[in-house]
Amino acid sequence: MKKFVLLLSVLATVFTSCEDEKVILTTSSGNINNLSVIVENDLWKGEVGDAIRTNLAATVEGLPQEEPLFNMNQIPPKAFSGFVTKNRTYLKVEKSDSIALKIVRNQFARPQTGVIAKGPDAASIAKLINERGADIVAVFKQTEIKEKQRRINKSLKADDVIKKKLGVSLKFPTAYRYAKEDDKFFWLRKDLKNGGMNIMIYEIPMQKIDADTNVISSIIKMRDSIGQAHIPGPVDGSYMITEAAYAPYLFESEIDGRFAYETKGTWEVKNAFMAGPFLNYTIEDKANNRYIVLEGFTFAPSAPKRDHMFELEAILKSAKIGF
Predict the structure, then answer these.
(1) Which of 6, 92, 239, 241 is positioned for an S-S bond with 38, CB 3.0–4.6 A?
(2) What is the pLDDT of residues 126-155, one digit of tens each?
(3) What domains appear along the chain, each with residue ranges and CATH number?
(4) Cα–Cα dist 180/286, whole Å
(5) What are phi and psi of 280, to 5 degrees?
(6) Contacts of 143 by beta carbon, 8 Å cutoff, 6+ apart
(7) Closest Cα to residue 225, out of 208, 212, 250?
(8) Calpha distance 262→291 (Å, rounded)
(9) Are 197 and 307 in contact (CB under 8 A)?
(10) How far apart are CA 56 and CA 33, in angstroms?
């Protein structure tokens, strides 16, 4: 009986310790899109570092100037301890007999996502990172979108009027104001020191975009007509259009479990010198025979725009559609 009681006591201590370990995980830290890279200096300076930079510091698509997907901070494994382990995202390179890519959640802090790339030598690790680069980027980006949305959720602007008129719920911070509000069109704006961040929400009939024809051409026509009707420029006769010199990027995506066309590119103002990046989601709503269009665009001359567009992306991806 004494042995049984002792066993229960030991088990209780073990389980309590496990619970305590979960409790004492500290909150992760770091700016959005800042990535710690734990790798030996010699690997960082060679082909492994080249593979990491090629994939994780690649230029963000759709911006008018070159900006990297992530700002990276290289840390030798011996220095990866204490507060350094608390960054929200990290990529760790390890030598191993086998080649493997592993995702680790909440190992040192919460929320936290780590990716561990293993291989027997530099060539195999570099090859692994190049082959799985898109997957690694997607994992880190998902973590950062969730973190940005968590921060946004601390202070939300009311979206009742959008929900009532368009059947769309959107989580955006109180820093945004309603710049224009029509029956089926909304323009939200956040003022910057030299410019602004903007969101448009509207609907179009499904027949406006025919998947069997040139989708990107249809989306450009849609954007330009909306710009002419709702987004005036600084002088008479000026309004926002899609930049004519370069075709936007077009991808297939998903918002709120629905198929969406994702378009990234540059907007400009007809008859005026203004331009900037935009991100557009044209989302199928078959039940209501329409597309819901969510778009974010930024005007911030001579300033970095990646983080502005990332905030807009996080907001647009929070959308819930349905009356």
Answers:
(1) 92
(2) 999 999 999 999 999 999 999 999 999 999
(3) 25-151 (3.30.379), 155-321 (3.40.1000.10)
(4) 27
(5) -125, 130
(6) 88, 89, 111, 113
(7) 208
(8) 13
(9) no
(10) 10
